[in-house]
Inverse folding.
């Protein structure tokens, strides 16, 4: 069955970093019940053939009041993100959902959960982490988050606090100012000692294709089945 398309009102707009904005929206007709890691499709009144459909992941688990927390960066020359950056509280957008399979289907117990994100690829992973630690997750989790600049590290303080307060959670923030290839190289230099000699982990990778695909290929070459490597690509 097709998901309902409904209006949602913008409740608040907050800049998180110089290039990343949080937009909180409240759907009008029906609460959207979702799994952390899922996304909604926004139908935007722009482009040659509107609506322009653009996907945005929920940045935090659902609440009883039903608002959705979306976080996005302004892509250079991007039609959809350019439109969304003009929204102000009280404006309406059209959306449908939830969609997507980038979710944790089993509780994390024996295997370490290895989360790897580049820039806004952290959004669904942050949602998953919030849910895990709200449920008092005790297994081992390693998050590698790569940003294009130090002041673009998303949720940095929150993640540092999570690492201090949860012994099983390790947070490795990295900065790669020279694009995806540098980000991939940095992540691989961190991963090789862990993966080549250690027990199997549960990998979840999110970012652009240029970031996610080489990392998935690395895991497959290391003996992982493709299905064991969960991925979400943003472009
Ligand atoms: C499942 C899913 C979930 C997503 N969740 C989020 C989210 O939570 N937050 C978020 O900010 N974005 C998210 N995205 C990306 C988002 O849907 C848009 O693609 C992004 O905002 C760019 O759209 P645009 O219309 O502004 O750019 P476009 O006009 O589509 O593209 C402009 C140029 O930028 C390139 N480009 C497109 N997307 C990206 C990107 N993500 N990063 C870098 N370059 C890009 C294009 O190749 C093109 O050259 C998600 C995408 C998917 C598929």
């Amino acid at each position: 069955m097709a998901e309902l398309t409904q209006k949602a009102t913008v409740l608040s707009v907050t800049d998180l970093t110089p290039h990343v904005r949080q937009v909180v929206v409240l759907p009008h007709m029906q609460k959207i019940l979702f799994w952390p890691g899922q996304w909604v499709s926004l139908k935007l009144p722009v482009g040659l053939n509107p609506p322009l459909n653009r996907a945005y992941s929920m940045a935090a688990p659902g609440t009883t009041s039903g608002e959705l927390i979306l976080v996005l960066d302004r892509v250079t020359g991007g039609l959809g993100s350019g439109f969304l950056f003009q929204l102000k509280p009280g404006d309406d957008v059209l959306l449908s959902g939830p969609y997507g399979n980038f979710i944790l289907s089993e509780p994390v117990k024996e295997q370490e959960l290895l989360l790897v994100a580049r820039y806004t690829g952290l959004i669904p992973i942050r949602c998953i982490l919030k849910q895990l630690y709200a449920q008092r997750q005790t297994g081992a989790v390693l998050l590698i988050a790569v940003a294009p600049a130090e002041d673009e590290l998303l949720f940095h303080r929150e993640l540092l606090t999570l690492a201090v307060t949860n012994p099983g959670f390790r947070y490795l923030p990295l900065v790669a100012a020279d694009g995806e290839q540098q980000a991939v190289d940095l992540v691989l230099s961190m991963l090789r000692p862990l993966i080549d000699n250690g027990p199997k982990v549960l990998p979840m990778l999110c970012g652009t294709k240029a970031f996610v695909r080489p990392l998935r290929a690395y895991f497959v070459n290391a003996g992982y089945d493709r299905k064991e490597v969960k991925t979400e690509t943003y472009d």
Summary: The chain has two domains: 5-99, 113-233. The chain has a mean pLDDT of 96. DSSP finds five helices and eleven strands in the chain. The two ends are 26 Å apart (CA to CA).
